[in-house]
Structures are given as structure tokens and as C-alpha cells.
Amino acid sequence: MKIATWDKALMEYIEEQRNKPFEWITHDCVTFVRGACAAQLGQDVFAAAIPEYKTLRGGKGVYARLAKKQQNYQTILNSVLKPSELVLPPRGSVIAKQTDNGASAVFGASLGVVVSRFAAFVGDNGLEFLPVHKNDEAWLVE
User: Fold this and answer.
1) Read out DSSP for 9-50?
2) How far is the C-alpha of 36 from the C-alpha of 27, rounded, in Å?
3) 43, 89, 96, 118: which could join 109 in a potential S-S bond, CB 3.0 to 4.6 Å?
4) What local confidence, expressed as pLDDT, does residue 118 receive?
């Protein structure tokens, strides 16, 4: 359940992350989404679903082990969050897009957070805001 001040907490988190460049382990799409969800829910709901990793090699190892169990970003997100069936996902939702950065190549998609008609994604030089499209793959943070 979202905390009472989730909207403010989410926007403060987005502002804190705005100018941080993409960096595996410390500021990649997984750590960004974990933080955004924690800001809204007051806890890290991914703690049991996604093992933490300290290196790029470790992150790839975690992903390889999950893939062996036939788990990908969709199955992991589905185990923790509710898939959105809405035409446009609401503010705070987690969204997946195919992008040009390294996360998409490793995880199958880049994960971001809906902030309006745009979603925030971690980019090389800080957050990038990409338009949210009808029927984008998304999950509700509730």
C-alpha cells in the first residue's frame, strides 16, 4: 500500500536522481525502479525477488540465474506488482521500453517510472523523459 505522501516522495526521488548518469549497480534501471517503488511504498518490495549485486558481472550473473529459472523482467515484476490493464498507466507506475542503452541489452528492456504523460528512464547523462504510449507494458505500484 502506498504511503500517504507517495506523490511528494516520488517527485523528490525523481529530482534527486535527475542528473545522475547511468552507472551499473549504483544508478541503473533496476536500482532506479527499486528506489522509485520504495519512495511510494516505504519499503523495497523487490528485496526477495531481485538479489542485490555489486558489480556488472554480478548483475549479469543474477540475470543469467533468473533466466535459467525462466524468470525475466515481466515475471519478476508480475510477482511483486500488478500488471496495468489501463490504456495509459498512472503516475508512479513502472514501465518497460526497448531503448538503446545497456540495460535493455542485459535485461530485455529498460525500466522506468511514469511521471506524467512521460516516463523517467536512466540515461547516460541523467534521467531521460520519454513519452508514454497507449498500451505500453506497465505495472501498478499499489
Assistant:
1) HHHHHHHHHTTPPPBTTTBSHHHHHHHHHHHHHSS-TTTTTS
2) 12
3) 96
4) 98
This prediction has a pTM of 0.88
- Where b means 16+ CB within 10 Å and e means fewer, 103-120 reads bbebbebbbbbbbeeebb
pLDDT digit string, tens, across residues 40-56: 999 999 888 877 777 77
If you ran DSSP here, which 8-state letter would residue 67 be given? Answer: H
Query: Model confidence at 104, in pLDDT bands (50, 70, 90)?
Result: low
3-class SS at 59?
helix
Contact 73, 109 (CB under 8 A): yes
